[in-house]
TrEMBL record:
It comes from Nocardia bhagyanarayanae. Keywords: DNA-binding, Transcription, Transcription regulation. Belongs to the LysR transcriptional regulatory family. PROSITE patterns: HTH_LYSR (PS50931). It comes from the Bacteria. PANTHER family: HTH-TYPE TRANSCRIPTIONAL REGULATOR, HTH-TYPE TRANSCRIPTIONAL REGULATOR CYSL. SUPFAM superfamilies: Periplasmic binding protein-like II (SSF53850), Winged helix' DNA-binding domain (SSF46785). This is DNA-binding transcriptional LysR family regulator. The keyword Transmembrane helix does not apply. One of its GO terms (molecular function) is DNA-binding transcription factor activity. The keyword Transcription applies.
């Protein structure tokens, strides 16, 4: 059976699906590593090939037409089938079950990886996943040493010697015990005051520590830690005793905040304490097959979170 005339290439269908997922042609172009004019030219060529107008182009941006949304709906299963085909062929070449080695920081491993792997298994149930959990610095080193095919970290900056993709932002929150003086104060805490306060810190190499340290360093030399603790669970327990305030991901602190064993402290600049989740990989080996799909699942999940 031959393909019907006018059948489009998979790459341009993937680009159109990215426009639908990200909401703009510019964002889709960035995802695919091409310029916006190049992306626009490829979509225009697809429109000519299909004899359909897929995008409404205006001064404020581009939006999918009804026909464009219909084409995207038809393209998604085609692209998933192509990814499955690529993985299956790779497995045949390797002569073994496909294996994906993932390294993830503790926050991401506990609060994001299970959901991402479930979605991956729905598409590729044959892939055997091995997960290594460490802090962000250790994850980067695992990727560099080729001990992981893809890594997931959090922190303020991308590693300069690795490829990376931002997945989404993670909110950090200052927490104290209900008996701590900050739990009853009416005035928000300034970043300068937070920097001058001994806090409960994660160990060196933690993405949380790096992100908080960078923000607070802009408002004075951070005070000596009240304690340096190797896990978020230990920090939560110590903060609940009123030992000292702590700065943690809201993902981690949420259960204790809901139970009332910890209280969130408002800041004068509530947006300052955020960090980014990133996928990372070796520059010479960008994600392919299940690794690429896992990164795409992670990005889609975070964009709708």
């Amino acid at each position: 059976m031959t393909l019907p005339p006018g059948t489009p290439d998979l790459d341009v269908l993937d680009l159109l699906v990215s426009v639908a997922e990200l909401g703009s042609l510019g964002a889709a172009a960035r995802r695919h590593g091409i310029s916006q004019p190049a992306a626009s030219m490829r979509i225009s060529a697809l429109e000519r090939r299909l004899h359909l107008r897929l995008l409404d182009r205006g001064p404020t941006g581009s939006a999918l037409t009804d026909a464009g949304r219909a084409v995207v709906d038809h393209a998604r299963p085609v692209l998933e089938a192509a990814r499955s085909f690529g993985v299956a062929v790779s497995a045949l070449r390797a002569g073994s079950v496909p294996r994906l080695r993932v390294a993830a920081s503790k926050t991401i491993a506990d609060h994001r990886i299970p959901q991402w792997l479930q979605a991956l298994r729905g598409v590729h149930p044959e892939v055997a996943v091995a997960l290594e959990v460490a802090n962000s610095s250790q994850v980067l080193e695992l990727v560099r040493r080729e001990a992981a095919d893809i890594g997931f970290v959090e922190g303020p900056h991308p590693p300069t010697d690795l490829g990376s993709r931002v997945l989404g932002a993670d909110e950090l929150v200052v927490v104290v015990a209900p008996t701590h003086p900050w739990a009853r104060r009416r005035r928000p805490v300034s970043l300068r005051e937070l920097a001058a306060t001994p806090l409960l810190w994660r160990e060196p190499g933690s993405g949380t520590r790096d992100a908080v340290w960078e923000v607070l360093s802009g408002h004075g030399e951070p005070a000596r830690p009240a304690a340096e603790l190797g896990s978020a669970a230990t920090i939560l327990a110590a903060a609940a005793t009123a030992l000292a305030p702590a700065v943690l991901s809201r993902l981690i602190a949420a259960p204790e905040l809901e139970r009332g064993s910890l209280v969130a402290v408002p800041l004068t600049d509530a947006t300052a304490l955020t960090r980014q989740f990133r996928a990372v990989w070796r520059l010479r080996f960008p994600p392919a097959g299940p690794a690429k799909l896992l990164a795409e699942i992670a990005e889609r999940t975070e964009s709708f979170d």
